Recover the amino acids of this structure.
């Protein structure tokens, strides 16, 4: 069954109602007749519901169509990473990139990307609510199964759903501030047109409450790949206590993660290319190395995709992601002397469009010896290859004066500016390199990806230590990561908030939700204006939170929903 939007006046109800029926996306071949009432009667049914919930949140990296003709032309994570100090627009076509370069009225209540993102997050909220409400309120559920007892199974299911609900409200509060707080499953019998915006502090209080419940009931190592771990929950608690300016609690929860023996930083080579040239830092981003069972002890949460399927679950996922497509440069279109020398190969990661790119500032943050800025993790050059070296692809085309074996260097000597995009020979992260061997020109990828890493917890800890006026311990914490990367070690006098933000960029670029980090540290406007030359000068104070989509305001027929400041 496909739910259609009949008219805009019911949209805010529809965005919460649309996932109240656990249907199509729960299973590749669902029964013809399935409903919330029939599904949520056993542990297996709730696992199916959770599978659907995880499928839904993976859209953050998969892309979503915002037009009737379909196609994954909008990368959801872009709204949390682009238009910051270390990421800028490079190709002004599709998605949020145009807004991130031009801002102004493009960041307005009619923006289709904002509308799609808002609706998606409330789909996540209501799907989680459906699971929570049924698990808590139904008495005839068979919770038996697996190696755990019925009560433990029940609490783990509720904990997972609450953790994902908290994850959704984390996004919502960073992007829109005060938002409607919904904790009950919305059904056709409970349609509301009188939603109110709950103060952001109250929403985050509920968010923390959900995480605290989940922390007690979710295992350190999930039973299936793709599920959220206790360490990820504890990490989000540490971050939320930084938002609340409670660094003591942030430090407590960060240490909980760091001191869990099952979580360890990757400090030695491992996995599929252990005996080939590389560095420990890059191993966890290689295809076949991302998951804990493949050796990635640093992973707090890994997201999976699978070839040739849709939907799926944590241990056998489907779908495709477009992370590489959005960030890797259009190097195959780069021309030298009228010749486009580079052909698309699997080894080169496949075809991409470079809609978002490093700022020059981000590229210049690395010391020469810092592994995190090396060729193994950032593409800085290509070597021209003949047909045998490129097989089964064709030989590269030789520009005048070039020979096979010569190097074509990418350039970042000048900032990306609006008038000259796209920059086709701009360096890019190789964290998402992946291509289908059958179709290396395809737009999507199925490579599993670390979503949350222990390294970020160390940086959360350092920030808490700095807030507690402990620059010495903060330096020691940061040096654990810098030593792993072969970067020079720092001392207490080097530790400032800006240094920590720089270090986060070096370690986590294109992984962290950079916009959120800069907003919670009150640094987004300052650093984006200073370092982002393709849009940074156009932002204003009202852009620190996005406008509530007009379609949502119009749907609230019986109660006025105020707009965010500057968008009246």
């Amino acid at each position: 069954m496909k739910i259609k939007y009949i008219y805009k006046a019911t949209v805010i109800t529809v965005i919460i109602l649309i996932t109240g029926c656990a249907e199509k996306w729960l299973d590749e071949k669902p029964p013809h007749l399935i409903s919330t009432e029939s599904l949520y009667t056993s542990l297996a049914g709730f696992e199916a519901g959770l599978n659907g919930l995880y499928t839904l949140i993976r859209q953050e990296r998969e892309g979503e169509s915002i037009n009737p003709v379909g196609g994954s032309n909008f990368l959801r994570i872009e709204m949390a990473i682009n238009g910051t100090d270390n990421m800028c627009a490079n190709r002004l076509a599709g998605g949020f990139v145009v807004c991130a370069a031009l801002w102004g009225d493009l960041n307005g209540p009619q923006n289709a990307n904002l509308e799609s993102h808002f609706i998606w997050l409330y789909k996540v909220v209501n799907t989680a609510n459906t699971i929570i409400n049924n698990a808590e309120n139904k008495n005839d559920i068979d919770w038996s199964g697996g190696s755990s007892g019925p009560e433990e199974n029940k609490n783990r299911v509720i904990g997972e759903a609450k953790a994902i609900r908290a994850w959704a409200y984390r996004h919502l509060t960073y992007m829109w501030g005060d938002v409607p707080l919904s904790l009950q499953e919305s059904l056709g019998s409970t349609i509301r047109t009188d939603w109110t915006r709950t103060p952001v502090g109250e929403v985050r209080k509920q968010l923390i409450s959900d995480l605290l419940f989940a922390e007690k009931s979710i295992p350190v190592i999930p039973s299936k790949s793709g599920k959220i771990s206790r360490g990820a929950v504890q990490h989000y608690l540490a971050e939320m206590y930084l938002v609340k300016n409670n660094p003591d609690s942030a430090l407590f929860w960060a240490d909980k993660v760091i001191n869990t023996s099952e979580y360890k930083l990757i400090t030695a080579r491992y996995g599929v290319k252990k005996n080939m040239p590389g560095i420990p830092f890059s191993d966890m981003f290689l295809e076949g190395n991302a998951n804990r069972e493949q050796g990635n002890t640093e992973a707090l949460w890994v997201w999976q995709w699978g070839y040739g399927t849709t939907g799926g679950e944590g241990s056998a996922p489907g779908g495709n992601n477009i992370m590489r497509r959005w960030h890797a440069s259009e190097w195959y279109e780069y021309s030298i002397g009228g010749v486009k020398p580079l052909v698309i190969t699997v080894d080169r990661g496949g075809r991409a469009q470079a809609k978002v790119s490093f700022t020059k500032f981000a590229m210049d943050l690395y010391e020469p010896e810092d592994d995190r800025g090396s060729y193994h993790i950032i593409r800085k050059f290509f070597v021209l290859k003949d047909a045998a070296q490129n097989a089964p692809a064709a030989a590269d085309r030789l520009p005048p004066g070039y020979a096979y074996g010569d190097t074509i260097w990418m350039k970042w000597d000048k900032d990306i500016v609006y008038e000259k995009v796209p920059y086709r020979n701009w360096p890019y992260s190789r964290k998402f390199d992946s291509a289908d061997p059958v179709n290396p020109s395809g737009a999507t990828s199925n490579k599993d990806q670390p979503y949350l890493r222990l390294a970020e917890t160390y940086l959360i800890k350092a920030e808490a230590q700095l807030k507690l006026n402990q620059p010495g311990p903060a330096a020691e914490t940061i040096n654990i990561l810098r030593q792993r990367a072969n970067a020079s070690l720092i001392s207490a006098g080097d530790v400032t908030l800006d240094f920590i933000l720089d270090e986060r960029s070096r370690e986590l670029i294109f992984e962290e939700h950079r916009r959120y980090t800069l907003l919670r540290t009150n640094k987004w406007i300052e650093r984006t204006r200073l370092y982002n030359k393709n849009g940074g000068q156009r932002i204003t104070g009202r852009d620190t939170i996005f406008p509530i989509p007009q379609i949502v305001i119009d749907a609230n027929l019986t109660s006025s929903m105020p707009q965010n400041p500057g968008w009246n």
Remarks:
- Residues 150-176 form the longest helix (27 residues).
